[in-house]
């Protein structure tokens, strides 16, 4: 084992939890394109967003000027239940890989939701409560976001309806059970409780649903009920903002030991995890102070950054949600059933899309799921944590970079986001272990079909 | 919320992980009764134990004199992967209960095995490796111990056969998948791979197995193979020794803030968790320095301390294992299918049994599983961690004590062990949530049938 220069796990003190989120857009010279009203195709206004989202979230969504935004005391109190999260030095993995690289990972899976999603769930639930909202709706695919929001709503005493992609709710009854334990109502989507759901059911009888479809239902349910709002767990600007706690804590922890990443790696589904992890490091780059290398990793089955188009698109299937300019496979693209449900989304945060388009995120790469589970199994063995399939995309890239260092002899410092745990993904691990797992790679024709639905 | 006097989570530094385990027996004036050889009924010798257990474990098992035993560097390195574990001040639960009590819990579930079991698994796997043992056998019921040992064996490169109670392996395929991910071989018990298994299968066709039966098989498999040993995850003296890290860290963390528990609460199955948690506090009592009140909580369905006999008994069904004097329901007692599989064991650590017999553990109480899941659900909502059903027995007692404080106005300091998480117990949560859960309480006749098998 290498000489130990930092602890295996760096725990910040409670008073080192960030007091402010960092708003990446404030430091971007080229801002992301504005959100458009789907009806008028003009930039959407605060007033137009207020019926859909909580007021504070709308203001954060549109805020391009304030670099730092205070975290309210009530949210900080909630964060204290599970933050600061540990930054871990992967000594054992480094030894197994015989690499001179120094590998760090920020572990966000140490709470019951099993992922980083709780960072935004806590914020959005509190803002709803503050505004007097008594009910929220959302969608969930793999179930991490739904679980996180269930926890936050249970804690703050808000009713919650979760539209869960039907095929996921059937494959993962235990995820549903966790949400119900925290008091949420879980509705398999498409359902007959919304017009959007009924239309999808009538057009596609027997469909297992999709995230885009569940979003349509959750949005419609929120808009048609009194004192109710919709919340989303990724993609949106204010979600990326909330997730900046991941990066801010990581940077503080590394600075304590004189460390700074040469490479920052995150898996990218909707983009909130990578956006949050890289935020303060990207700030350094935007200000010309440091120049780390940023890598986004996405599943080969849903390659929005690597094979998508940079275009205006809806976030949902039914076309109810505002239009955002982003890398997208088209809101009608139905990704194949990859096991990393949290990365199975056709679009990408407009912030990350802009940064990638402008070359500020250096690289996006894909990984096939069998190679991802190989990396996950290796990581579990040497680091003792069973990762979520989503997180394992970042592990795969970190391992590859560390192996490159072994070959070149460079002792690079690698930081990646370990977003969550895989306790509810054992069916996927069983599939990998039994050799039954296959890689899904969409053909060019599959992609063209998705692009055909673009505006 | 009460004024915050300590952090929500107290994280010790890595160099505060205990360097030595504490051996409770060294300070007991009245020692536990000796272990007997089942053939001769005479105190068992070191030599007689060596074919069964690793050498270092045998020495620890028989050591009644050394109060502190050094933790080898290799085990400390393993501990650094997931220790120190946090000591949590349950501010949110206190507020929900409106209690003046101060509630602390030591959370041992933050590793992939999901429980405290890893503390002894790491030690036993390392001692095996050190001795040149290449294969280990064990049994598992709920799966926490099997998972912990799979992790430790995967890390140290030792082959592992886990005899998993058949009904558990069928109910919990995902637990099995986790163990296999870490490289273990999982054999549903009873199996046709051992004489003990074949006999049980022939006597009870269609049986779902039991922990006692799985122990018989694992012991036989270890004894009949070369360079192989058997390891057990609870009950034994050396396991209680390894678990003392729980209590030692808890005491150090509390001392930092001038705190000391008035009440120490642990769930008790085989006894290693409660034994480990209370160890340094019991030391204070044995030395006449402090006088905390100790409570053991067991399931109403398997009440070894509260309704068992203090007698010599086997640890397994087939009667292969050494005899220990302990509170027991009889090794032939088959507990009803309570959801807290980790507490479904007929006997109890001989150390804890002796302490309870001598009045040094003040109280043992039972809890029915519906009340336990009620406490678990409350805890999840306010503390954000979904507890294992086993751990929830301690939660139930802690909540009851805190409610008593509300009634008397006393601000007692309560410490309990939150041994693990319930991510693999969602079927049980679903049963509770749906109102299908029933309490199993053995009748006096059930118990007499178990006692009839005692020596």
Describe the 3D structure.
Two copies of one chain form a homodimer. The first copy, chain A, is α/β, with parallel strands linked by helices and 455 residues long. Chain A has a domain at 9-18 and 71-114 and 238-451: Rossmann fold (3-Layer(aba) Sandwich), CATH 3.40.50. Chain A has helices at residues 46-49, 55-62, 73-79, 91-97, 118-130, 144-156, 166-171, 173-181, 195-203, 211-223, 237-242, 244-256, 272-286, 304-307, 350-357, 369-383, 389-408, 426-433, 444-451, and strands at residues 9-10, 20-22, 68-70, 87-89, 102-107, 135-140, 159-165, 185-189, 228-230, 263-267, 293-299, 309-314, 323-328, 363-367, 413-418. In chain A, the strands form four sheets. Chain A has a seven-stranded mixed β-sheet with strand order 1-4-5-15-10-11-14, sandwiched between helices. Chain A has a four-stranded parallel β-sheet with strand order 8-7-6-9, sandwiched between helices. In chain A, helix 9 runs antiparallel to helix 10 (211-223) and helix 12 packs across helix 13 (272-286). The N and C termini of chain A lie far apart (55 Å). The relative contact order of chain A is 0.15. The model of chain A has no long low-confidence stretch (mean pLDDT 95). The A-B interface holds A 1, 7-9, 11, 13-14, 77, 80-82, 92, 110-112, 114, 151, 154-155, 173-174, 177-178, 180-183, 377, 380-386, 421, 423-424, 426-427, 429-430, 433 and B 1, 7-9, 11, 13-14, 77, 80-82, 92, 110-112, 114, 151, 154-155, 173-174, 177-178, 180-183, 377, 380-386, 421, 423-424, 426-427, 429-430, 433.
């Amino acid at each position: 084992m290498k000489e130990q220069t930092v602890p295996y796990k760096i725990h910040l003190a409670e008073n080192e939890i960030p007091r402010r989120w960092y708003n990446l857009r404030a430091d971007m010279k080229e801002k992301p394109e504005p959100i458009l009203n789907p009806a008028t195709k003009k930039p959407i206004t605060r007033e137009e967003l207020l019926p859909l989202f909580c007021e504070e979230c709308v203001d954060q969504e549109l805020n391009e000027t304030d670099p730092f935004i205070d975290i309210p005391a009530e949210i900080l109190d909630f964060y204290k239940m599970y933050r600061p999260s540990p930054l871990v030095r992967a000594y054992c993995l480094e030894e197994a890989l015989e690499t001179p690289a120094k590998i760090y990972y920020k572990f966000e899976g140490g709470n019951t939701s099993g992922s980083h999603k709780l960072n935004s769930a806590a914020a959005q639930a509190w803002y709803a409560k503050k505004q007097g909202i008594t009910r929220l709706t959302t969608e969930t695919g793999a179930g991490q976001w739904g679980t996180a929001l269930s926890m936050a709503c249970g804690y703050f005493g808000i009713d919650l309806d979760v539209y869960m992609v039907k095929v996921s709710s059937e494959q993962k009854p235990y995820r549903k059970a966790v949400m119900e334990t925290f008091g949420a109502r879980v509705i398999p989507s498409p359902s007959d409780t919304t017009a959007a759901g009924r239309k999808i059911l009538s057009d596609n009888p027997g469909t297992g649903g999709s995230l885009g479809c569940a979003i349509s239902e959750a949005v419609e349910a929120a808009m048609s009920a009194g004192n109710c709002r919709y919340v989303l767990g990724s993609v949106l600007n204010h979600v990326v903002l909330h997730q900046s706690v991941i990066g801010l804590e990581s940077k503080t922890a590394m600075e304590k030991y004189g460390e700074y990443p040469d490479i920052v790696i995150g898996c990218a589904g909707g983009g909130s995890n990578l956006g949050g992890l890289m935020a303060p490091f990207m700030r350094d780059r935007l200000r010309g102070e440091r120049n780390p290398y940023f890598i986004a990793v996405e599943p080969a089955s849903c390659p929005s950054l690597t094979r998508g188009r940079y275009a205006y698109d809806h976030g949902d299937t039914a076309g109810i949600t505002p239009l955002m300019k982003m890398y997208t496979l088209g809101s009608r693209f139905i990704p194949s059933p990859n096991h990393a449900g949290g990365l199975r989304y056709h679009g990408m945060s407009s912030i990350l899309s802009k940064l990638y388009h402008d070359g500020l995120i250096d690289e996006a790469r894909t990984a096939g799921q069998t190679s991802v589970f190989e990396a996950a199994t290796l990581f579990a063995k040497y680091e003792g944590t069973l990762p979520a399939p989503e997180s394992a995309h970042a592990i795969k890239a970190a391992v590859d970079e560390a192996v490159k260092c072994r070959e070149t002899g460079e002792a690079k410092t690698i930081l990646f986001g370990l977003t969550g745990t895989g306790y509810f993904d054992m069916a996927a691990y069983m599939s990998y272990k039994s050799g039954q797992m296959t890689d899904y790679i969409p053909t060019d024709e599959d992609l063209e079909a998705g692009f055909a639905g673009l505006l």
